[in-house]
Specification:
This protein starts with a helix and ends with a helix. Strands 1, 2, 3, 6, 12 and 13 form a six-stranded mixed beta sheet that branches. Strands 10-7-11 form a three-stranded antiparallel beta sheet. The protein has helices at residues 2-17, 34-46, 66-75, 90-95, 103-108, 119-122, 147-152, 158-163, 169-181, 200-210, 226-242, 309-319, 322-328, 337-340, 343-346, 354-366, 376-390, 397-408; strands at 23-29, 54-60, 82-86, 126-127, 130-131, 134-140, 142-146, 216-217, 220-221, 261-264, 279-282, 294-302, 368-369. The radius of gyration is 24 Å and the shape is globular. α17 (376-390) packs antiparallel against α18 (397-408). The protein has 412 residues and is an alpha/beta fold. β8 (216-217) and β9 form a beta hairpin.
């Protein structure tokens, strides 16, 4: 008995003296922005208070390549532990069993308060009562505008027009053409200059919704319905008749002064610190269907092939607690109601005046997310070449959109 006690005491002493095993997490993101990464690394550092040996490495994959390269990593034996996920891709990852359920870990996290998350904002990230992702960014699309270009053209800017109730799709077309005619390189640029490629849905859905249309619902394609056709016809005419939208093959780059307006989310305000011109943000133009804010979401998920799933879940609970959501609010509009309605949000981004951030809050409360589907990869692959055919000067818009619906109908 004495020998056993002695051995036990020695074993305990050795365990206590041994260094803790390193806890390493690989976290994929689609941002390479220095301000974003500094913020994320700060949150990772604060995680050490509860997990002293934990390290988190953020790996950037460009947004346009993100899903494809992530899928290769997951299938190729080199899986990350956790990462960002697009809203439109989430249903497919859940259906494929590629992400883990987070519900027990979040419910067990001290002071987490799941009820603080907006129920509509959580909709895409749940299957029944099971939570598979936590939205960290519920970000409405806004119009960024170059105020200097508007002033030079003698035009009221979108924020002023919105305040007067005059900022609609007709006015959007009118001012975009006037800006181009007055000497601006272009009146408008699609999101990140990729509206003909990886950002097709970001380019077409705001006007489609404003006109009262939809992409698909109840298994039916809506792209070739009259409302969507009218919306896309306007865009087509702005590109090829007015010359006011940056056309395929050209680079406008709003952020370096190559276009007077663009559409994006508030995370892109981080690029405006060095813009070199006066600027602002305004709501999306209204249309025949009234105001139709569009919300893009991004969530946090733990991949099923993670080597450290429990640690990864603990980090998601840490990253999305109320304190860190308030930190992230400077770039990523929150899904937590307590943060969204606080000065922590409206005053979080020093580049955007509080009164303009109030428009962001209103859009979050009233907006609808971009379309999603568990067959999103197949829909996207079928949709892309048909939209390529649309963006030609001599394209028949109705016929092109009929072809889009024919191509995707089997996946709806």
């Amino acid at each position: 008995m004495t020998l056993r006690k002695s051995l036990s005491a020695t074993a305990i002493a050795l365990v206590l003296a041994a260094p803790l095993a390193a806890e390493e997490l690989r976290f994929t993101v689609w941002t390479g922005n220095d301000a974003h990464l500094a913020m994320l690394n700060g949150i990772a550092e604060s995680f050490k208070a509860s997990h002293p040996e934990a390290t988190v490495t953020f790996e950037t994959i460009p947004a346009g390549d993100y899903i494809q390269k992530l899928t290769f990593q997951l299938a190729g034996g080199n899986p990350p532990d956790l990462g960002w996920m697009f809203e439109d891709s989430m249903p497919a990852f859940v259906a494929a069993g590629a992400v883990q359920e987070l519900t027990p870990a979040l419910e067990a996290a001290e002071g987490y308060d799941l009820a603080d998350f907006s129920e509509p904002a959580m909709g895409l990230w749940k299957d029944g009562d099971a939570i598979y992702g936590v939205p960290f960014s519920t970000s409405p699309f806004m119009i960024y505008y170059n105020k200097d270009m508007f002033d030079a053209a003698g035009l009221e800017d979108p924020l002023a027009l919105a305040a007067k109730g005059e900022w609609d799709m007709d006015k959007f077309r009118e001012v975009a053409k006037a800006l181009k005619d007055s000497g601006a390189p272009y009146g408008f640029e699609f999101k990140d200059g990729q509206g003909y490629d990886t950002r097709i849905m970001h380019a077409i859905m705001p006007p489609i919704r404003a006109y009262g249309g939809y992409a698909w619902k109840d298994g039916e394609c809506g792209f070739n319905k009259p409302e969507a056709v009218a919306a896309i016809t306007q865009l087509h005419e702005m590109v090829f008749e007015d010359g006011s939208i940056v056309p395929p093959g050209e680079q406008g780059d709003y952020f370096s002064g190559g276009a007077a307006m663009t559409i994006n989310q508030i995370s892109r305000a981080s690029r405006m610190a060095e813009a070199g011109f006066n600027w602002g943000i305004a709501p999306l133009p209204t249309g025949p269907a009234g105001a139709s804010p569009i919300i893009g979401q991004a969530g946090l998920v733990v991949f099923s092939e993670s080597d450290q799933p429990e640690l990864a879940k603990a980090f998601i609970a840490h990253m999305t607690n109320a304190e860190n959501v308030a930190v992230m609010a400077q770039f990523f509009p929150p899904a937590r109601k307590s943060v969204l309605g606080s000065a922590a949000f409206t005053e979080a981004n020093k580049l955007i005046p509080a009164e303009q951030m109030a428009n962001v809050s209103a859009a979050i409360e009233e907006g609808n997310v971009l379309p999603s589907h568990q067959n999103s990869p197949q829909i996207g692959a079928a949709l892309k070449p048909r939209f390529d055919a649309l963006w030609r000067a001599d394209a028949d818009v109705q016929a092109s959109l009929d072809a889009v619906c024919d191509a995707i109908q089997g996946n709806l």
